[in-house]
Amino acid sequence: MSQARLSDHVYAQIVDIIKSDDLEVGARLPAEARLAEMFGVSRAIVREALMRLASDGITEARRGAGSFVKSRPSDRLSMFMPSTELPTTLGSYEVRFVLETEAARLAATRRTVQEMAYVEEGMEMLRAALLSSEPAHVEDMELHRRIAEATGNPAFLIAFDALHGDVDKIMRAGVDISRSRPPDVIATMLREHEQIVAAIRAQDPEGAALAMRWHLWEGRRRLMP
Amino acid sequence: MSQARLSDHVYAQIVDIIKSDDLEVGARLPAEARLAEMFGVSRAIVREALMRLASDGITEARRGAGSFVKSRPSDRLSMFMPSTELPTTLGSYEVRFVLETEAARLAATRRTVQEMAYVEEGMEMLRAALLSSEPAHVEDMELHRRIAEATGNPAFLIAFDALHGDVDKIMRAGVDISRSRPPDVIATMLREHEQIVAAIRAQDPEGAALAMRWHLWEGRRRLMP
DNA sequence: CTCTATAATCTGTCTAACAGATTTTAAGCC
DNA sequence: GGCTTAAAATCTGTTAGACAGATTATAGAG
């Protein structure tokens, strides 16, 4: 889906209304039918956008009453979301340093045999993808998710998945750039992942945390030519 | 909205299909019309659920082709989401220890005058709410968001907002429980927030990080009577 | 076997109607 | 004037059907 859907536009426009009208938490939004009229779309499209706003915690719908502001989107968030041109690498790396380092540490401590097998499988998939000429960013993402999952705490995966968009772009760029460099760059990337997995396998929390932190640091450095 | 909507049920059921059919990334889901028939709902409801699945990065819709698995929801995530009875406090607290501690540290380092004013305003709103008999969990959430915002890095807010559902429940419970205790418990909660804000105001990163960590630790303890 | 055209299938959007919930308004009573 | 009650208006949640544009599958011709 290369073209944005109308409901994406409506989502952004409703966020704009909340901000431009300076609506406080608890304030009532215009009715669905009214919004549809304002934006020149059908009510079904408005509902789709509102459903996502509600799911994102920004609004809350009460049957018979209307939709209400539940929490205000931040100014920076709204600036961040519609624009894909902003340099986002520094942003998510900073969060990933603390989040994924801790996740690796906990994964090394808590992983079950099954979770370890899942991580190992993800490692194999990533290896195969990196050594092929196919895209490998999905496999890269998947391994990181499996490590977060091996913490045994779904909140780590939730927080990590919230950064999915940025992390996906970073990983795609990371793989592409590494492929445009001498072959040992890919081998280095692969080894970094292996070192993380090995520390988790060995149930070495400090080793896993350090390996993850190193990988993220090096991954970031690889993006700056 | 105390009752779950049909689209919430359909969301969970589609996740179940992905898991029970062991659909890999790239696998095609049944068509919207087919899903509507399977679940005994209208197609509009299926679309609403699919829109959220796509927004959550789990599926991807291609016009004319169908909806495809984009990333697999983790087993734990799907167990976590439909059930509200699981003890979720340990989960998000663990992530919040690393995420919000780092956010407080960075907020103390980087906050602008305007961001500080925003944080102070949030503090006043929380004080007023806690000293009234009205709900205060929204204000509690808002202050924490403003601190994440003051890091100057939207990724912190994105990750924090991903835990919105759990954190909201925790904060609501935290306020309710504190109100059922002697009055000094509310005062303590208030002072903890003030200490975080004071350290950020004073541009004391280590102080802010410690105060936040202490607050989260105490907040967690208050939930265990 | 390959290419082209057509048919079938699919998502995206619109319209209209109805059900159930909430809010507003109006009327009646004290 | 204030309070209560009932009716009307308004709202979200859902269903159903139609059509547009995109993709996939199939059939026929060379």
TrEMBL record, chains A, B:
GO terms for molecular function: DNA binding; DNA-binding transcription factor activity. Keywords: DNA-binding, Transcription, Transcription regulation. It holds the Pfam family GntR. SMART domains: FCD (SM00895), HTH_GNTR (SM00345). Residues 4-72 form the HTH gntR-type domain. The keyword Transcription applies. Transmembrane segments: none annotated. Coiled coil: none annotated. PROSITE patterns: HTH_GNTR (PS50949). InterPro entries: GntR_C, TF_FadR/GntR_C, Tscrpt_reg_HTH_GntR, WH-like_DNA-bd_sf, WH_DNA-bd_sf. PANTHER family: TRANSCRIPTIONAL REGULATOR, GNTR FAMILY (PTHR43537), UXU OPERON TRANSCRIPTIONAL REGULATOR (PTHR43537:SF5). This is FadR family transcriptional regulator. It comes from Sphingobium limneticum.
